[in-house]
Fold this protein.
Amino acid sequence: MSHAAQAYARTSQTTATPREIEAQALLKAARQLQEVQANWNGADNKMYKALQFNRRLWSIFMTEAEANENPNTREVRQNIANIGMFVLTRTIEIQLDPAPEKLKSLIDINCNIAAGLAGRA
């Protein structure tokens, strides 16, 4: 099991709702990316680990969106898939040409979706 999936599974063992767990996971990924951005050292191990965690998290979301038993509407599921594809594409762009300002879009996406899941949007 991947680190992201393990973290997600550990978090899900709490009494939080699935939406709260997803919001917490997104905020954890955003914090990791923010730390890399704030303490920019170029394409270092911390950057790659933060990008990997975020990519794995979004891969989980995309896989769940495709599941037949997913209760969300087709439109919501498609939106999750579209955002996930953007995240994956942006991650590759950052890995190929690292720059701290490129992390902003990933951080913003995670924070905004986490706020929506937590009912703060």
In short: The radius of gyration is 14 Å. The chain is about 75% helix and 0% strand. Helices lie at 3-12, 18-38, 45-66, 74-96, 104-117. The mean pLDDT is 90.
